[in-house]
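Hey,

The postdoc asked me to send both predictions to you directly instead of through the lab channel. I've kept everything plain text so nothing gets mangled by the mail client. Protein one:
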Amino acid sequence: MAIKLYNSLGCQIQEFQPLKDKQVGLYTCGPTVYWYAHLGNLRTYVFEDILKRVLEFNGLKVKHVMNITDVGHLTSDADQGEDKLEKGAARENKTVWEIAQFYTEAFINDLKTLNIIMPDVLVKATDTIKEQIELIRELEKKGYTYKIEDGIYFDTSKLPTYGALWPNKMELKAGARVEMSEGKKNATDFALWKFSPKDSKRQMEWDSPWGIGFPGWHTECVAMAAMHLGLPFDIHCGGIDHVLIHHTNEIAQAEASYGKIPANFWLHGEFMLIKTEQSNEADKISKSKGNIILVSDISKKGLNPLAFRYLCLTTHYRSKMNFSWEALEGANNALLSVYTKIEELQKSGLPKTLSPERQKLLEEFTADINNDLDMPKALALLHETLKSSLPPAEKYALLLEYDKIFGLGFGNIKTTIVPPEILAIAQERQQARQNKDWNKSDLLRQKIENLGWTIKDSSQGFELHKN
């Protein structure tokens, strides 16, 4: 059954065919490890995990490469401001290396918590400085670079195809995207190599043919992809915010240096939105807006982190997703309900034969996931399957097949199912504790215990155990 994906390069649904028989090269943009990944970031990683699972479900072998940006990502798209890692080090009074290591480990833990399959290759920008310098030298030889006071820049006017990823052949005039840095020839020109500041000492800097400094953010992905996947490769993914600048600049460097667009398919996940107390308007989740939520915040409210993964499945990856705690609690209750039914189905074991009805449902599921990862429709089919007349054993086997894509842990349900009414009392008690209303907190604890449960407070919130 054909896999159809929306290719941002051309803005249309296309049938996916790998460049090599049954092998897929997949590159996904990783985190800048100066702070925790928030749920808006992690929605993108969930979507990319679903894509990878769908490819493998269809019998394809995927080589997945992800970068770790531990240098070169500045606080401004105009290639100005502080390096985010240097800024994080100053904030926490640590070295940049300590900051990078700590938040890389935190990111990996978040991936594991959300059942996101680890990349085959996880590579740091600081481990590929040599390759990035070689790429910049190649661009220099071909006449695409120029030097100004703060670094070496790519001259986008030299590349007629610049902006191939932009929808509707859009054009950016000076000042439309960013403020013009002094000496830049064009608003869209970007830094390849930044010189270290003369008035301060950076912790991360390297010698180069142009002077002491560090690579620009957009160069690392091209160097890494070429090194680990070769060019072109099959699919490049990231958030929708990468389209106009980061991925556009990756394409520019690859075309200029290698004469090739890096990937045949470009897939982008939409923003996750959240309403704040300050505004009734939903806005994207970002650190700069102060509305971020972390995976650890989910546990602190006594919810299963996989409820967030379930919630992501309810919205197509190319649609904006509205987040609220009420929606997450609803997803948590829905997931617990599914777990409860699966625990009952497990008692029947696995079937020895494949019925026509089960085969038909599996084909319908495959058609949904292969149709540009239509997870809302696939999730609806899950609930239809639970209500179907299939024998319990066949139903259970089918759900295990579905979960190869969903990643919700249907085959390994270890935690005791917490009824929604118990969870609601525990959350009310948690709020009472935060308000320092200890009398109410004690009364609610007693109520939980009277209903046959024990609540244990922890640094992550609370844990509930059946007596």
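Protein two:
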Amino acid sequence: DIGAVLGCGGAMKELVRLETSGFTYEQAHTLDEIEEFVKSGRESEILLPVDIAFMSLPKAIVLPQYKKMADNGNSLGRNQLDLEDNRGNEARIRVYCEDGLFYGIYEFEDGKAAYVPRKLFFYKK
């Protein structure tokens, strides 16, 4: 684009992204560094919880009596969630169990009048 504006053409030689979605270049690790952490059994020192990437979305907690539905990946109605920010009209939310387990990202579908799971991340040991 710069080359087009200058009328001489141009090509990008290198691009370094310094920050994206709250993650900075300084927090990044090379593949070699990651390999060393894994080899020494210290990968937990650099791993971040997956939900950190979605902190911009409103948080909702599944009410205890509907936990089994969430465990099975079912859609959830507004009355089955505690929408912590009390807006209740968000299109996309991040959903958690009462004990803090992150289920994933749910999106409201008008036709179903419910939040439908779009990306699930939880697992049970």
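Summary for protein two, as requested: The first strand starts at residue 19 and ends at 20.

Thanks,
C.
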